[in-house]
Design goal:
alpha/beta; 15 strands; 2 domains; 19% strand; Peroxisomal Thiolase, Chain A, domain 1
């Protein structure tokens, strides 16, 4: 069975465009959350804050005339993929491109185009609906457009499992390479749902923070005053290769994907099962897949959304899986959502890339805004400031609506 390594990464996030810009912001504890500018809000919106991608010029990555075909999440993904390919120095023959897969997880797809065209249809009738409308918004078009752009003719999928979408994409890509179905897969996620209908919908669920007067301090995982997550947007693509393929081309190896676990709470459409039992199963499966003991894990990039029940149940789940290793604060845990917000379907891939950077650099990003720790969440969440330590094994957790759970193990490459 093939080992699976990561040889390139690309990021588009609310705290930076590119790996280095994003990483420096996270290590410095900088927030990318602010007042919404992508649409006009009013006092009727209970939430008027989000993690928007700033200073993104899609024409640097996509032909200007092609943009009319694309909802916002797709240029994000095309940009992240171009960065990842360049980072990996991936040069492929036409024959090799026949077997390159593209697995990009997307939660909601082109929500802003759905909103705009629904209004247009109501106001001006069906003849004004563009033929590009459907292809611009369906979730698989991030993967489809990446495949078209680069001539990758292997399997092309959109894994859609809410906030676990891109974590599942990475995990399933890993399995495909292990079993020889592909030698190279572009795996990642993309999302852009900061729209009137998106914010109104999440607000109606009482899921979002309402700290409109203090956006940068709104997302506060494990803090007793947390009041919901902050919606964000962006994309991440990673180049996954079989070890044999990476070695043949002399690739620089950033890290290895050593474990993957997936489960379902089978409990409720939005609430986590009490005790975090589904999350427990996903984490244990990932550890077993990686052939690691819990006490070998140095860092966990937690799901950590800043929702009252979600943070508590994840904390309990980590306690059950990691025991004394967690309770005695030997494993460090942080939520980079405290700075970026929640990238929904793209979150798992972005946070896997954060784990890779922690392994590469020995830096662990903080959980900012953790001013008043919830007494029910008693683990080491790396409050306020980044730390340094040697990270050999890192776990990334992603849990979503519908009770879907995914955990990934990323490890320093050895031999």
């Amino acid at each position: 069975m093939e080992r699976v390594v990561i040889t390139g990464m690309g990021l588009v996030t609310p705290v930076g465009i590119g790996i280095e810009a994003t990483w420096q912001s996270l290590i410095q504890g900088k927030s990318g959350i602010g007042l919404i500018t992508l649409f006009e809000t009013s006092s009727e919106y209970p939430t008027r804050i989000a993690g928007e991608v700033k200073n993104f010029d899609p024409t640097l990555y996509v032909e200007k005339k092609k943009l009319k075909e694309l909802a916002r999440f797709i240029p994000f993904s095309l940009a992240a993929t171009k960065m990842a390919i360049a980072d990996a120095q991936l040069e492929l023959s036409d024959e090799e491109r026949q077997e390159v897969g593209v697995y990009i997880g997307v939660g909601l797809g082109g929500l802003e185009n759905l909103e705009k065209v629904s209004l247009l249809l109501h106001e001006k009738g069906p003849k004004r609906v563009s033929p590009y409308f459907i292809p611009s918004l369906i979730a698989n078009m991030a993967a489809g457009q990446v495949s078209i752009e680069h001539g990758f003719r292997g399997p092309s999928f959109a894994h859609t499992s809410a906030c676990a979408s891109s974590a599942h994409a990475l995990g399933e890509a890993t399995r495909a390479i292990r079993h020889g179905y592909a030698q190279v897969i572009v795996a990642g996620g993309a999302e852009a749902t900061i729209t009137a209908i998106g914010i109104a919908g999440f607000s109606a669920m009482f899921a979002l923070s309402r700290r409109n007067d203090d956006p940068e301090r709104a997302c506060r995982p494990w803090d007793r005053d947390r009041d919901g997550f902050v919606c964000a947007e962006g994309a991440c693509s990673l180049i996954l290769e079989s070890l044999s393929h990476a070695k043949r081309r002399g690739a620089r190896i950033l890290a290895e994907v050593t474990g993957y676990g997936a489960s379902c709470d089978a409990y409720h459409i939005t609430k986590p099962v009490p005790g975090g039992l589904g999350a427990v199963r996903a984490m244990r499966l990932a550890l077993a897949d990686a052939r690691l003991n819990a006490d070998q894990v140095d860092y966990i990039n937690a799901h950590g959304t800043s929702t009252p029940p979600g943070d508590t149940e994840e904390s309990k789940a980590i306690e059950k899986v990691f025991g004394a290793h967690a309770l005695e604060k030997r494993v460090w845990i942080s939520s980079t959502k405290s700075m970026m917000g929640h990238l929904l379907g793209a979150a798992g891939a972005v946070e896997a890339a954060v784990c890779v950077q922690a392994i590469r650099t020995g830096g662990v990003p903080p959980t900012i805004n953790l001013d008043n720790p919830d007494p029910e969440c008693a683990l080491d969440y790396v409050p306020h400031h980044a730390r340094e330590r040697r990270v050999l094994h890192a776990m990334s957790n992603s849990f979503g609506f519908g009770g879907t759970n995914a955990s990934l193990m990323l490890s320093a490459f050895s031999g």
